[in-house]
Write a structure and sequence with these properties.
By secondary structure, the chain is mainly alpha-helical. The chain has one domain. It is about 80% helix and about 0% strand. It has four helices and no strands. The longest helix is centred in the middle third of the chain and has 41 residues. The mean pLDDT is about 90.
Length: about 150
C-alpha cells in the first residue's frame, strides 16, 4: 500500500511539473507572437534563461491550485483504472488512457462550470492535447511504479 501511495505522489508531482511547463510554453508562444504583431514583425524571441525563469514562476504560482485539481482527477482515474486493469491485464495502457481522460474531463468540467479551462495554456486544442499527454504520462508512470515484480 505504501508503494502505491508513494507512486501516486511521484506521478502527481511529475504531472504538475510537466503540465505547468507545457502551459508555460504555450503562453510564451502566444506572448511572443502577440509582441511580434504589436511591432509589425515576426514573433519576438524570448531568451532561454527568461523562458526557464518564466516556467519556474508559473510552477510556483500554479503548484497549489493546479496541483490539487489535477491530483484529484488523477486519483479518481487511478482508482477506476485499477479496477479495469485487473480485467484487461494492460496496466500501462489502461492507466495512461485513464490519466489522459481524467485531465480532459477536468478541463471540460471547468469550462462548463466556470466558463474557462482555468489556465491559458490549455485553451486551444494543442494546449489541451499537451495537458492530456501529461495526464497519459502520469497514469502510465503510476502503472509502471506499481507493477508487480517478477518472482
Amino acid at each position: 500500500m505504501l508503494r502505491r501511495i508513494v507512486a501516486f505522489f511521484v506521478a502527481a508531482a511529475v504531472m504538475v511539473v510537466l503540465g505547468s511547463a507545457a502551459q508555460s510554453l504555450f503562453v510564451q508562444h502566444a506572448w511572443s507572437a502577440a509582441a511580434g504583431q504589436a511591432d509589425g514583425t515576426a514573433a519576438v524571441a524570448i531568451p532561454f534563461a527568461d523562458r526557464i525563469l518564466w516556467a519556474g514562476h508559473d510552477l510556483v504560482g500554479m503548484i497549489l491550485p493546479y496541483g490539487a485539481i489535477t491530483s484529484i482527477a488523477l486519483l479518481i482515474a487511478c482508482l477506476a483504472a485499477g479496477a479495469l486493469a485487473r480485467f484487461t491485464g494492460r496496466r500501462a495502457l489502461v492507466f495512461g488512457v485513464a490519466g489522459a481522460l481524467a485531465i480532459l474531463a477536468m478541463f471540460t468540467a471547468m469550462k462548463m462550470l466556470v466558463g474557462s479551462v482555468g489556465i491559458f495554456g490549455a485553451r486551444g486544442a494543442l494546449g489541451l492535447a499537451a495537458q492530456a499527454s501529461v495526464g497519459l504520462l502520469a497514469g502510465a508512470l503510476f502503472a509502471r511504479l506499481t507493477r508487480r515484480g517478477k518472482s
